[in-house]
């Protein structure tokens, strides 16, 4: 738990019980989590709005990032060190992979999204690329 406390501190976040619990959930999972997944793993005393606000704060601070899922839902994944590029900007230009078998979405941090050229007048803010298939755990059987 002390690791979580120092992480919150690093990101300039005041320590709250809800933040600590949510961060703990993200750190114990290697795949992306939807709002509902987080909620079901939390003690019932935290309401929907608190959970929603905490996730939003974590995204704004760069602790977690959004992962678009195929069913139109948004999931969240913990940011890793390589979110911070040499340009000191925070970016998530890596591919996300959704396994059709186990249904889990994971960050492929070492697979970057190819550069895209947009028509004139379009400004890119973020890019999401979701690859669907069978993950390494489900493929080995
Ligand atoms: Zn990040
Ligand atoms: Zn799988
Ligand atoms: Zn990711």
- Give Rg in angstroms: 16 Å
CATH superfamily: Winged helix-like DNA-binding domain superfamily/Winged helix DNA-binding domain
Count of the separate structural domains: 1
Bound molecules: zinc ion
Main traits of this protein?
binds zinc ion; alpha+beta; three-stranded antiparallel β-sheet; Arc Repressor Mutant, subunit A; 141 residues; single chain; globular
Task: Explain the layout of strands and helices.
Layout lengths: L1 H9 L6 H12 L4 E2 H7 L6 H14 L2 E5 L5 E5 L15 E6 L5 E8 L17 E4 L2 H4 L2
Parallel strand pairs: 4-6
Antiparallel strand pairs: 1-3, 2-3, 4-5
Bound molecules: zinc ion (ZN) (3 copies).
One zinc ion binds next to helix 5.
Fold and architecture overview:
With 141 residues, this protein is an alpha+beta fold. The protein has one domain: Arc Repressor Mutant, subunit A, CATH 1.10.10.10. It has helices spanning 2-10, 17-28, 35-41, 48-61, 136-139; strands spanning 33-34, 64-68, 74-78, 94-99, 105-112, 130-133. The chain has a 3-stranded antiparallel beta sheet. Strand 2 (64-68) and strand 3 (74-78) form a beta hairpin. The longest helix has 14 residues, at 48-61. It starts with a helix and ends with a helix. Residues 62, 65, 79, 83, 90, 92 line the site of one zinc ion.
Compact overview of the structure:
The chain is of the alpha+beta class and 141 residues long.
């Amino acid at each position: 738990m002390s690791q979580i406390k120092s992480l919150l501190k690093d990101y300039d976040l005041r320590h709250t019980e809800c933040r600590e619990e949510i961060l703990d959930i993200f750190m114990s999972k290697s795949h992306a989590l939807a709002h509902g997944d987080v909620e079901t793993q939390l003690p019932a005393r935290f309401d929907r709005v608190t959970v929603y606000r905490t996730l939003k704060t974590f995204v704004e601070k760069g602790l977690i990032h959004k992962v678009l899922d195929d069913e139109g839902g948004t999931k969240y994944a913990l940011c890793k060190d390589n979110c911070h590029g040499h340009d000191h900007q925070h970016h998530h230009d890596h591919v996300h992979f959704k396994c059709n078998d186990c249904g889990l979405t994971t960050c492929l941090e070492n697979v970057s999204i190819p550069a895209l050229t947009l028509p004139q007048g379009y400004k890119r803010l973020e890019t999401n690329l979701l690859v669907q298939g069978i993950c390494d755990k489900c493929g080995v059987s």
